[in-house]
Design brief:
Layout lengths: L6 H4 L2 E5 L2 H15 L5 H13 L9 E8 L9 E13 L7 E12 L9 H13 L25 E8 L17 E2 L5 E6 L12 E4 L4 H17 L8 E4 L9 H9 L10 E4 L9 E6 L9 E7 L6 H14 L4 E5 L6 H8 L7 E4 L3 E10 L8 E2 L9
Parallel strand pairs: 4-5, 9-16, 12-13
Antiparallel strand pairs: 1-2, 2-3, 3-4, 3-9, 5-15, 6-15, 7-13, 7-14, 8-10, 10-11, 11-12
Helix pairs in contact: 2-3
This protein binds coenzyme A.
Coenzyme A binds next to strand 4, helix 4 and strand 5.
Length: 393
């Protein structure tokens, strides 16, 4: 075992929000892994745009955290990650009220190459839990942690991340001996892949219309009401349930927007959603949000959110996806987290033979496995209830 693996050594390291130079060190380490076709300059510009201009990142919602030596707080980083602050809803065990809450999404966990496999990422993430939550004080071995302001870093009910390195590593990044780190639950990591076909028409069926980025704030408000109502009806006699709020600033537009930053538009403006307004105003609208290409998730057409899609409407939606998907050069579409929540819809999809549907669990490596950490009381056993793609980061 190398000398770096012993915990006495790790006690010399602590967490902080990156200063400017440390932020650049983190970006550079991430660029080595996720650059795709981007130069470092373009990668850096996109990160700054997210931080300063995007609705999901501005006002300090998007932060870089790094692991540093206690005796060199402004110096070299040994591991880093990013957090996005998002709004959520929680219905506590035995309560009948849905309350507002916060959830952090963690992204871009990376250790600079020379420092790999010394326990640095594990250390960073174990400490991070305590900065983001009101968990009981950290174990003695963590030492004192830098104070973070609860105004700029509100305490969250939980956090999540989408793992590309399998389902075990992040579960071992624990906040204390009695809580696991980010746990992957099978029902939340399912996938459905279907075939995009040459379009039969260039027009949408009657009653359907495209949605654009500008529409998403008002669509988010509608979805937020619906999500809250749905949660209020759920049974929480056994455990607390929580989920993201679709009205959380910019979260619905995160994937479609970042996709468009990286490539030419498929159409100008490019649709990011589809809506059906029923003639009977008592009925709820059907809403689908998508991205034609967002390469960091994978080179497929991505449906990130569906609301109120009934099985008989599916062929119409898939025909609409053919129109844009074909233009974007996509041959397959991808949707996550439906099998447990919408079994009938999945069954209908599987029954469309020409779509050659494949369903199952997403793969361990590069499968973006959703892991969740609960920060509320242990006995409430909090569970995140939505595994759709829209909250990916
Ligand atoms: C994943 C990563 C951040 C871990 O950083 P680290 O500081 O080396 O991690 P630690 O030393 O704390 O823990 C090492 C453990 O990470 C896990 N791990 C690291 N790379 C892994 C990989 N590619 N696949 C699966 N597990 C991996 C292993 O469990 C390993 O334990 P082991 O050495 O006993 O096998 C680092 O490998 C990295 O930067 N990878 C490239 C970027 C990346 O893929 N990030 C994850 C995005 S979700």
């Amino acid at each position: 075992m190398s000398m770096f693996k012993d915990t006495a050594n790790l006690a010399n390291f602590t967490i902080r929000i990156a200063n400017e130079l440390q932020g650049i060190q983190h970006l550079r380490a991430g660029w080595e892994i996720w650059k795709k076709d981007n130069t470092f300059e373009k990668y850096h510009t996109m990160a700054m745009k997210e931080r300063n201009e995007s609705p999901w990142g501005n006002d300090g919602k998007y932060l870089t955290w790094v692991l540093v030596r206690r005796d060199d707080m402004d110096g070299q980083i040994y591991a880093g990650c990013e957090t996005y602050l998002r709004k959520g809803f929680v219905k506590h065990k035995d309560s009948n009220k849905v309350e507002d809450t916060f959830i952090y999404t963690i992204a871009s966990v990376v250790t600079p190459k020379p420092y790999l496999r010394n326990g640095y990422a594990t250390r960073l993430l174990s400490l991070l839990h305590h900065q983001l939550s009101n968990l009981p004080p950290p174990p003695y071995s963590f030492g004192s942690l830098p104070e973070v302001s609860a105004t700029t870093i509100p305490k969250a009910i939980g956090s999540m991340l989408w793992s590309d390195v399998g389902s075990t590593f992040y579960s071992k990044c624990t906040s204390s001996s009695d809580r696991p780190g980010w746990v992957v639950e099978k029902p939340l990591v399912t996938e459905l892949i279907w075939k995009i076909l040459p379009p039969q028409s260039t027009k949408l069926d009657d009653g359907w219309e495209w949605l654009y980025l500008d529409d998403l704030p008002s669509i988010g408000a509608k979805l937020s009401n619906a999500a809250k109502l749905d949660l209020s009806k759920r049974d929480t006699s056994q455990k607390t349930l929580f989920q993201h709020d679709p009205a959380s600033e910019g979260t619905l537009s995160f994937i479609p927007t970042k996709g468009m930053w990286q490539r030419p538009l498929i159409e100008d403006p490019e649709p990011v959603g589809l809506r059906f307004i029923p003639s009977d105003s008592q009925e709820q609208e059907t809403i689908i949000i998508f991205s034609m290409r967002m390469i960091n998730i994978g080179d497929r057409l991505l449906i990130t959110y569906i609301h109120n899609l009934s099985p008989p409407q599916l062929p119409t939606v898939l025909k609409a996806m053919d129109i844009l998907g074909h233009k974007a050069g996509q041959t397959e579409g991808w949707i996550w987290g439906l099998s447990a929540s919408r079994p009938n819809l999945v069954k209908t999809w599987q029954g469309l033979e020409d779509r050659q549907v494949k369903t199952g669990q997403r793969q361990e490596i590069d499968g973006h496995l959703l892991g969740v950490a609960w920060y509320g009381p242990l006995e409430e056993n909090g569970e995140l209830i939505d595994g759709q793609m829209w909250t990916w980061a």
